[in-house]
Amino acid sequence: MRAAMVEHLSSQSRPYRYFFQNPVSFTFRVFCSESSVKNDDVEAVYRIISSSNSSGNLKQSLKSSGVFLSNDLIDKVLKRVRFGHGNPLQTLEFFNYTGNRKGFYHTAFSLDTMLYILGRSRMFEKIWDVLTDVRRKDRTLITSRTVMVVLARVAKVCSVRQTVESFRRFKRLVPEFDTNCFNALLRTLCQEKSMTDARNVYHSLKHSFRPNLQTFNILLSGWKSAEEAEGFFEEMRQMGVKPDIVSYNCLVDVYCKGREIEKAYKVVEKMRDEEIMPDVITHTSIIGGLGLVGQPDKARVVLKEMKEDGCYPDAAAYNAAIRNFCIAKRLGDAYSLMDEMVNKGLNPNATTYNLFFRVFYWSNDLRSSWNLYVRMMETGCLPNTQSCMFLIRLFRRQEEVEMALQLWNDMVEKGFGSYMLVSDVLFDLLCNMGKLVEAERCFLQMVEKGHKPSNVSFRRIKVLMELANKQDSLGNLSEKMAIFGPIITSPESTAVSTPSFPS
Hints:
Blueprint lengths: L1 H9 L6 H5 L1 H10 L6 H13 L3 H11 L5 H14 L3 H12 L8 H13 L3 H15 L5 H14 L2 H10 L9 H14 L2 H11 L7 H10 L3 H13 L6 H13 L3 H13 L6 H13 L3 H10 L9 H13 L3 H13 L6 H13 L3 H13 L6 H13 L3 H14 L4 H14 L3 H13 L6 H13 L3 H12 L21
Helix pairs in contact: 1-14, 4-5, 4-6, 6-8, 7-8, 8-10, 10-11, 10-12, 11-12, 12-13, 12-14, 14-15, 14-16, 15-16, 16-17, 16-18, 17-18, 18-19, 18-20, 19-20, 20-21, 20-22, 22-23, 22-24, 24-25, 24-26, 25-26, 26-27, 26-28, 27-29, 28-29
Pfam families: PPR, PPR_2, PPR_3
Family: Belongs to the PPR family. P subfamily.
Protein name: Pentatricopeptide repeat
């Protein structure tokens, strides 16, 4: 529920007026963007980026590839790099090369994705270089979303003070340094630091920016303390900001998570008094709260009563009710609710299945886990990374190599789950069981998909291959690993830029 609320709060779009203010740019972007970019072209460019060892080599390979570098293709390539953990420096070369073409303008998506890639590698000075270049060419690309992307990466490794200093640095870059940017800072602090930090920064900067409804909703959505949430709710009223359904849902949620169900019901009554009808998110919070106080049956009744408020349970509401029965170890009732979902035309999602996988993992129930996985695949619901991790760890615990390989093959074929996280556990299992041939095959499949195996996994396989005197295979794997750059032997040797901040 909280994730859905944050996603709702963070959704922003670029103003349409930009295109009317920049007709030349708009015309070029329309003709240079294609909606039907071939996946083969995306993969071809991605491989060029991954295998190039110099700027000249990259440019020449791109020119000779014959691939038309449209906005849509660049967006997809950068997304591919992001999720494939590609080389950030070579990706930056690609971004600069395509952006420097006469009359070409990157999209806001490309810019934000490039900044995310650099930020993940802690190349903060290069982030500011990119932003400075973009400011000169097309400042409108730098939005409050850009602010949030950069600050989120800074906040992961730097202090609150440094994060705020980075925020202030945007004043010279973003076209409108306004409340939307302030909200981006607060959202970042709520997600990456603590609510106490967000509260302190809010109070120190609120006189420079006029807090609006979204400001308070961001802060309200992060509080786990009812007392703090009530305090911000009161300040919101004092400033003349009228709460909306998101505000009330935040208060209901914090009461429910604190097991204060009666207070949550009183908020719902107040909503009705103000003619704000509770929605599916309100009811989902109530369902979750009832489960926390040991009333899963009463929560199930809420599912049936929702239609009285003109709303109907969605997958998240059913998941909350199913979670209650899973916590109570009443799996029969949980399965009954999942069948009810299907009968009502709602498809169980990966989160639904994960509720069961978690129970089976902790009870070491391999057969039930496997049967559920088979059902999941047969219904066309692809597992997510959490599903895969519950399964692969259980397979390793019980040394089930065949099941582990089946999961991996499905991942390779259908493209779900995190190759990096799952492969570490898989290679550990295969090496423990002496399955070097299988480990080598999975390693090559991973590289073929453009994903880098971890250095830990590579060293584990390397040692066993040396013991088995498989020098040819080891040489092949070493060549494949070299595509992704030098192998880092320790965290201290990681060559990344340290963040620099204005004085």
